[in-house]
Amino acid sequence: MSLIKQLWLTITTLLLLAFVGSLLIGVTSSRHYIEQEIEIKNNDNANALALSMSQMEKDPVILELLLAAQFDTGHYQRIELRDAEGEIIEQRTAGEYVDDVPAWFVELVRFDVPAGHAVVQNGWQQYGTLELESQRSFAYRSLWRSSLELAGWFALAGVVSLLLAGWIVSTIRRPLRNVVSQAQAIGQRRFMVANEPRTRELREVVQAMNQLSEAVRRMLGEESDKLDQLRRRMQHDPVTDTLTRAPFLDQLQAHLKSEKDDASGTLAMVRVARLAELNQQLGHGATDTLLIRVARRLDQLANLYGYGTVGRLNGSDFALTLPRHHDLEALGNDLAERLRSLGEEFGATVSLPSALCQYHQGESRTQLLASLDGALAAAEARGGNSQEIVDQPASSVLFTNHDEWREALTEALDQGVFLAHYPVLDAQGQLIHHEVPSRLRLKGEWRPAGVFLPWVSRLAMAPSLDLAAISAAISDVETSGKAVAINLSPDSLNDGHFVGELLSRVRARQSIADKLWFELPQSVALQQPQPLKTLCHALLGLGCRVGLEHVGTQFGKIEGLQDLGLSFMKIDGALSQEIESRSDQQSLLRGMATLAHSLGIMAIAEGVENQGAADTLFELGLDGVTGPGIREQSVNGG
């Protein structure tokens, strides 16, 4: 039994004891008082009547008339006149009428009042004995009314006392509930700070819990800072603070293999022409400043268009990826203008040629870079801040305008979503869940998500696609009984109708809620932490799990990470490339896994290409793997 229930039981018992005891004492006292009053009345009336009869002539008729008159006006139950030998001379009796008082009450408080006795004299001799009993129905009525009034007052006092007790219990229960929630949150690796109550004992407990929460939060913050320092030391160029060549190309490769909406976009390259000559003309410090300014211009574009990444491929070349962005002309004009203004700042000797192209899922990274590098060389040969745009082959374009894409996507959604299945396995080869990226039938073929998701986002159709995928995933779970991970779009998170419909569909399938895993990109946690937190807590309350995908090295910088309530994270495939031979990446992934586990978050690696890489990742502490090299039978066999 809970403390609050015990407290309520104690309060209720005490109130009932006080009520019943007070009522019994009040009724008993009133009964005793009434009995005394009736006894006194009996004696007084008997003496008065006997005295009157003693002074009268002892004519039987006169005595009878006197007794009758006294009986009719005095509310008596019985009056008897007996002679000296005990024989009845005259008697008057009446029944006891108490119809307006419950019979059980009359039996419970039955009065025990002796009759009044007096001697009737005839001169100096005793004429007889008079016995008199007063009517007691009025006494029962009076005691019943007083009992009702007393019970009413006690009931009112009880209600007021219960209300007061409820308020007191609520003031005690609120901080207790906060302490319980805080303890549960710490158990789930969420470190909240509770308000301190006024009650001293509870305040001391809350203060201790807050100190514990802050200490663990501070420890995790320090670990996150160390992880970030390690990441920057291993992956970032010391001059420009951009990604170095290897991690940037790993990330590009992850995009080209992705099943998500980052599988297509724009790739741009910028070259600081004649860098060695500039270093001699401007000096080492000014040249470094120029490189830093170029990196900043590209970083501004990455932030402006969202989700972009900047890398330094070598001393003079910079690259920029912009997933989900396909307007080469607009981006090219923006980039050219920023580079032109930068060149003017440093003088006519600075030349910043650039080249742009689109990338798509399945393309060869080597061919893509070679094509772009050739275009960049052509731009450099033309001199100044020239720019080349690599034309996209017409065969790779499914539809040519917005209307065609909208019509095709609407028709495809009406036909239904097909879900691909990619296993996520643990170290024992057991299935954690299936990733189920969407497929839509476009131009007679089932197309992967990377083909249509950019247009789904551009046409604001993400909520419709996500709801269709959720319905298909629920049906899949009901059929197979296996858990699935459903990708949600960041655009859907801000759609109130979508969130309400999602929660409604999960509530309607409460029995399979524990097999529904929902995942969103890491960018959502960085840009929309509050909506993500709200959705996480709502889905967790229904038994689902929520996590992040494409998690990179900025994982430790997510605001309020420990309070989001995440169940899992999927580490970006760029970090697991050639993991067996890269000790620097191993240290980074080990640190990320440790940080995730300290927050109670499962760590899963994406983009794993072979069993050797999977074994290495498990040795580093990761909980699961997925990717092109992961098959249920192959891991089970290993």
What does this structure look like?
There is one protein chain. With 638 residues, the chain is of the alpha/beta class. Helix content is 55%, strand content 16%. The protein contains 20 helices and 20 strands. The strands form 4 sheets. An 8-stranded mixed sheet has the order 11-12-15-16-17-18-19-20. Strands 6-7-5-8-9 form a 5-stranded mixed sheet, with helices on both faces. The chain has a 4-stranded antiparallel sheet with strand order 2-1-4-3. Strand 6 and strand 7 form a beta hairpin. The longest helix is centred in the N-terminal third of the chain and has 52 residues. The chain starts with a helix and ends with a helix. The C terminus is likely disordered.
